[in-house]
Amino acid sequence: MKKPILMGLALIPPLLLGGLALAQSAGVTSLRGAEVDEPAIVDQVHRTVEGRMQRNYRQQPPLVPHSIEQYQIDLRTNQCLSCHDWTKAGERNAPTLSMTHYLDREGRELDQIAGTRYFCNQCHVPQADALPLVDNTFEPSSGN
């Protein structure tokens, strides 16, 4: 009884290696018929809008009127602050962050941006004239 089990276990690695070698030799093919190594042409589904877009609802965070694609925003660096921090906004002719960004959880004023507001792209997104992905049936309440 032990001999057939050992033979079966001994055959598993060579069969797996043979199957892997066979799969690797087949080459890569595309499901769409394009060559795998040629760059794909991507249509621009949105374009950047010049000027500022109107807000859609009360207390909506302002949209960013420029690209932030190459901006570094992580634990070490926030490149938004190189222009929009209150110490530099005047010389860079950029809008200053609102004072709420300099308040901690207890409401105390800070000299630096609060940690809860450090990652700008949690609330602020670049503005784009893009078609909605789903139909928007939002209707504001009568009091707003």
Automatic annotation (TrEMBL):
A Pfam family of this chain: NapB
Gene3D superfamilies xref list: Flavocytochrome C3, Chain A (1.10.1130.10)
Binding site for heme c 1: 66, 80, 83-84
Cell location: Periplasm
Binding annotation for heme c 2: 101, 120, 123-124
GO cellular component, one term: periplasmic space
Xref: InterPro entries: Multihaem_cyt_sf (IPR036280), NapB (IPR005591)
Reported modifications of this chain: Binds 2 heme C groups per subunit.
Keywords carried by this UniProt record: Electron transport, Heme, Iron, Metal-binding, Periplasm, Signal, Transport
Keyword Protein transport: no
Chain coiled-coil ranges: none
Main location: periplasm
Gene Ontology terms: biological process: anaerobic respiration
GO terms, molecular function: metal ion binding
Residues annotated as signal peptide: 1-23
Similarity remark: Belongs to the NapB family.
Quaternary context: Component of the periplasmic nitrate reductase NapAB complex composed of NapA and NapB.
Functional description taken from the UniProt entry: Electron transfer subunit of the periplasmic nitrate reductase complex NapAB. Receives electrons from the membrane-anchored tetraheme c-type NapC protein and transfers these to NapA subunit, thus allowing electron flow between membrane and periplasm. Essential for periplasmic nitrate reduction with nitrate as the terminal electron acceptor.
Name this protein carries in UniProt: Periplasmic nitrate reductase, electron transfer subunit
Organism for this UniProt entry: Ruegeria halocynthiae
